């Protein structure tokens, strides 16, 4: 049973530790990386030995996040996961090594499984980076341009550049503070939201071509299969930002993206508006996430994956078939 | 010669007036409408007779901006244009009626032509709504949910939902204040950035199909002609948000959108990054705008419009042909 602790207690715990290993989730995004590197830089400023471990290779575009933050090699005496809702999300290698011995988890997912000895969760926060911002203030470390860059990245990426429902007044105020402290917000937003390769544009065109509608237009389903990826020449980082597209279509309650993985199975992303809980729909297929954005993996063919997710949508939102 | 005045002087001037006509620019956007209706509501709260006039029909999607704000009919004793850089932009009918007798202009365009008797310009502001926010505070009127909704709309639409370089700390802080005061930010962002009709999706697909590249990929040009609009069934409000697309492509310095007007001529939108001044490029063809986003109209065929804008790009950024 995990002990639920406050940001103050989390800060005190980190203050006492000396050799700290921070853990990011696999398929790393701007929030898990931004939160971890912000905390890493702040704890190093206090003279501690700290580094960040991620089970996957960090995409090239995030290189600006860890520029100038040393990553020493050492044996940790304290392990802290940031923005990791479930131990499984660390990825198999990291889970095998550190599973069951994580001292602290700092997170903003309401679905956090409580796998760490101590859990500091605030699901009201749009990004884990906002909790980290508070902990860094409690540690009495200055917000340097490096830390501001990391925190701003976490907030802007997890709020879809301040577009989603979670982009509340607090998110804007912390973002403003980060800008004041030197976060190069234009570069950060451009890197994360405004640069598309030509391959990505081509992939997007093909994906739009194959958009399908169900439930009287209330559900939109987009598919990205291996042949489209090969034909367009798209790389892994060309895939980001595709899942929100189907839900943006007028009248759509549930936007679904089926993306074929290398093993042929489908990774499913679900996005919802105010009508439905994406996390509940994905839970029906063994997945999870947030209220408006969640995911799961389904084994089998496209037909099987499509049938499974549509069934889950109908089970999760019975009135979708009747309006 | 227009007198340049401060926000304090503008507030004092409005405070003294009784029957105030506010003017928005033609092809109205979220900022000119949000700024005008925010100011209208605030001045009405002071007991004044006020309404907003726009030379074009206000698109349906902006109806939430003026809900509950009365629009009485009266003979004005004071005329104030908001977010209107040039008298021409009022549209021919409004310009004929009020041109040369505009008492005050509140604006954030550095290219403001100084057509009003008094001009209150602050080009550091991302949106005219930010200047209006300041003037309303100076008028000592409470920011109601109605006013907050209008101001938030102006800021979010003129910053591309806080994505552009103008989305600075002040923009975020005023947005946070508006959220605190009751702006339904999720609805506003969804209406302005997150809803696309199926016709729009189809139009976007066709536009992406026809994207052309020049200057070693540094210039991208997208065309929306009349036949594409007809084929997709797209309406006027399906066109918004298209101009930023070409510049989002990796390696692109200048993104150009050629949109065929009803008379066959082309309206050109230019978007630039840090490499170039969009406003200077469009000025070469008789247009104008902001540093990173500007426009102009070119008479003639697609071939002529395309040749003219490419020439202007080469003239405005000589090193675009050499890298």
* Head-to-tail CA distance between termini of chain A: 42 Å
Shape of chain A: globular
Tell me the number of helical segments of chain A per DSSP (H or I, 4 or more residues long): 12
What's the number of domains of chain A?
Answer: 2
What order do the strands of the largest sheet of chain A run in, or round the barrel if closed? 1-6-5-4-2-3
Largest interface: A-B, 40 and 40 residues
Please give the largest β-sheet of chain A: 6 strands, parallel
Order of helix and strand elements from N to C terminus of chain A: EHEHEHEHEEHHHHHEEHEEHEEH
- pLDDT < 50 runs, ≥5 residues of chain A: none
CATH class of the largest domain in chain A, please? Alpha Beta
Oligomer: homodimer
CATH architecture annotation name of the largest domain in chain A: Alpha-Beta Complex
Determine the structural class of chain A based on helices, strands and strand pairing. Answer: alpha/beta
CATH homologous superfamily designation of the largest domain in chain A:
inorganic pyrophosphatase (n-terminal core)
Strand element count of chain A = 12
Mean pLDDT of chain A: 94
The CATH topology annotation of the largest domain in chain A reads as inorganic pyrophosphatase (n-terminal core)
Helix content percent band of chain A? 25-40%
Radius of gyration based on Cα positions of chain A: 20 Å
Strand content of chain A: 15-25%
In short:
Chain A has two domains: 3-193, Alpha-Beta Complex (inorganic pyrophosphatase (n-terminal core)); 198-321, Roll (Diaminopimelate Epimerase, Chain A, domain 1), CATH 3.10.310. In chain A, 38% of the residues lie in helices and 18% in strands.
